[in-house]
Amino acid sequence: MTKTYFATVSSGLEEIAAKELETLGAKEVKPDFTGVHFQGDKELLYRINLWSRIIFRVLVPIEEVKSYNATQLYKSVQKINWSEYLEPDQTFRVNCTGSNNNLNHTHFTALQIKNAIVDQQTRVFKQRSDIDLNAPNIIINAHINGNHCLLSLDSSGESLHRRGYRPAMGLAPLKETLASALLAMANWDGNLPFLDPMCGSGILPIEAALKALNIAPGLYRNHFSFQHWKDFDQSLYNKIVTEAKNQQLAKIKHPIFGSDKDLSVIQQARSNATACGVDKEIKLAQISLEKIEPPTTEGIIICNPPYGKRIGNTEELGALYKLLGDILKQRFKGWTAYILTANKALSKQIGLRTSSRLTVYNGSLPCTLLKYELY
């Protein structure tokens, strides 16, 4: 049966996410602010949760109800038959976004929805579900927009950017979803050698390896929320997982490199790559930027140097950006470089002419992905 879904995504990545969803088989794909609407069946829902590299979660709308104030919201939520979605012996949590004049605190709004659900359960079953804020069986998403509230089931559970392979985190790491989005924006799919000369804890090289090996990132997760749903089809899910495992490649076509001047973060990167099972496919090394040399005659560089928002001093970083530009110009002829930065003044220090500029957000920070053709 075809249903309508909504995939949440970081601001600025809606179009990239829409293309990914279409590739995975989604129909009627329509990008929206920080999300993408699409249609598909249960198999598609499972497949997208397992395979998406860019989105955060997939929501399944239940119903849009009136929510002028707390009383109306409570009564509206009570009209829904929650036994179709939640058993009294299951735990749940309500996540809320949005607001109106009368419902302007998300915690209060979530509490009204929770009360309406458990009061219905108590009346019908003489027992009620417990609330679990950390690892609930069922997650209900509520979004207030004007005088209406859209209630949805969260099929993913923990955000899909949490692949499950990263025990070690460096300073201000990229989310895995953003790292994968940068690879997509650079049109990199394993077709050329890849280098991140400031790789930190290794997220970009690792996501590159997962893509090059055609590994579904969801395979590293313990479970998804849809596995607790009443209509969960275990055999269908097993089939999709088996297919994903069978589609993995044994070897990458072109080498993947990551380096950093800090030995401790390279050790973190190695730990993460080992946890991910791609440590043999990534060549990680402690190399300071001034000593970096092109490992091959051509390839793609993608890096996320510090830009003074979270790490480092803006004035001190000017020299780093100038050094990066000089090295790219002098040593990496034949390569294409992509640099993510949130600091326009620092980007000017690179001293190279960009061939394109793409807007993207790193969390709440507006950034630009700068492309340089190196000849």
UniProtKB/TrEMBL annotation:
Gene3D superfamilies: 3.30.2130.30, Vaccinia Virus protein VP39. Transmembrane segments: none annotated. Keywords: Methyltransferase, RNA-binding, Transferase. The keyword Transferase applies. The keyword Transferase applies. InterPro entries: DNA_methylase_N6_adenine_CS (IPR002052), RlmKL-like_Mtase (IPR000241), RlmKL-like_Mtase_CS (IPR053943), RlmL_1st (IPR054170), SAM-dependent_MTases_sf (IPR029063), THUMP_dom (IPR004114). PROSITE patterns: N6_MTASE, THUMP, UPF0020. SMART domains: THUMP. GO terms for molecular function: RNA binding; rRNA (guanine-N2-)-methyltransferase activity; rRNA (guanine-N7-)-methyltransferase activity. Residues 44-155 form the THUMP domain. It holds the Pfam family RlmL_1st. It comes from Rippkaea orientalis (strain PCC 8801 / RF-1). This is Putative RNA methylase.
